[in-house]
Amino acid sequence: MALKGLDIFKLSPKKNCKECGSPTCMAFSMKVAQGAVSVDACPYFSEDAKAALNEATAPPMKTIKVGAGDKEMSLGGETVLFRHEKTYVSKTRYAVAICSCMDDAEIDAKLAAIPKVDYERIGERMFVEMIYLNYAPSAGAEKYLEVVKKAAALDRVLVLGCTDVEVAKQALELVKDSKPILNGATPENYAEMSAVATAAGVALGVRGADINEIYDTVAALEKAGNKNLLIDVGVNSIKDAFATAVQLRRAAIKDNDRTCGYPSIVRVGGLAQGDKHLQAALASVFTMKYGSIVVLDQMTYAEALPLYGLRQNIFTDPQKPMKVEPGIYPLNGADENSICVTTVDFALTYFVVSGELERSGVPLNLIINDAGGLSVLTSWAAGKFSAGTISKFFAEHDIEGKLKSRKLVIPGKVAVLKGELEAKLPGWEIIIAPNEAVQLVKFMKDLTA
Fold it and tell me: Which of 111, 125, 325, 414 has its CA 20 to 30 A from that of 105?
């Protein structure tokens, strides 16, 4: 149960020294209870009190770090079941599965296809972040180790799907510095696998025949001191996998059962059994509920575009609009004499509009107004994108001093602003753009022809 401000105050030094930035220890305690500040901001809490508070105020789901360097990523750490309650913390990561049972040509082809899905959407890089390497005993250890070496060359986070302790140990020796995940602990081998994973300093994935077996194995690993864990929800059936993912998350968040509070691995490729359309549907389902790592048999642009778009919509803070920095963005080699185009700072609007403007090839200065991260019509309705706010923004940022052009293109959906803008910005020619961004390419070419 989360601590209240009074509980934290009882452990505080009660100095009211203000060194933490709060006027009193009670005010500081209230901020800690709300999650607005860390208890470490107070220099006078005892170490025992800090340890107790950090444990009590930690998220019900443990945050697990995987990968190394600029590839490091966080999994878990969630505090709510539904995004609208607060926000999700760690986005779902996608992996492509490769099995050592495949022939060399197929393995090479799958590895070669992974870097091809790599693009940017609304300022976020979309790419295959992980590779899941499944060990097939029939193919032998040597072949598996060769596959691990090949996959490591792509510089992605690896997930080693291997339940053979000796093979897992050899594979980890090859790639342990990149902090992969070892997904191979079972009720039969968990003690040995835990020792291997702990020695290599990597996270350990836990499997089981059902949710009860998984729970007991995780509890045994926790008792042995290993809490750097993930839970594989299994591939027995779609129904069982979904139930396991949801029940574990609910038990962690609602019942504060920390044995259930670990990130999950969902092998949707195994659940779909070769059906690509079903695999895509399952990837979407488990992105929403509640896959930390979703493993697919393949990832092409056909799968990636809707899937990453879904993920980006889900894993943004609903209380904080996605926005870009207001200012002047020269495009296509624009200078101070180039025509001006203006729109709002909502990230989706910016990236869609700027992309079309770049495609036009016309040199221009894109002026992004501070509209609170709202879309064109929403910000106009809220009074954040009006003739008054635009003219004020121009004055505060000295637009007229920085740019010599006096032609300004405004969004077609706020054409009503034309007359008032001409009054507020004397000397400027206000031009109305089309309603849709896709029409900007032809519009800009015709305008400057």
Answer: 125
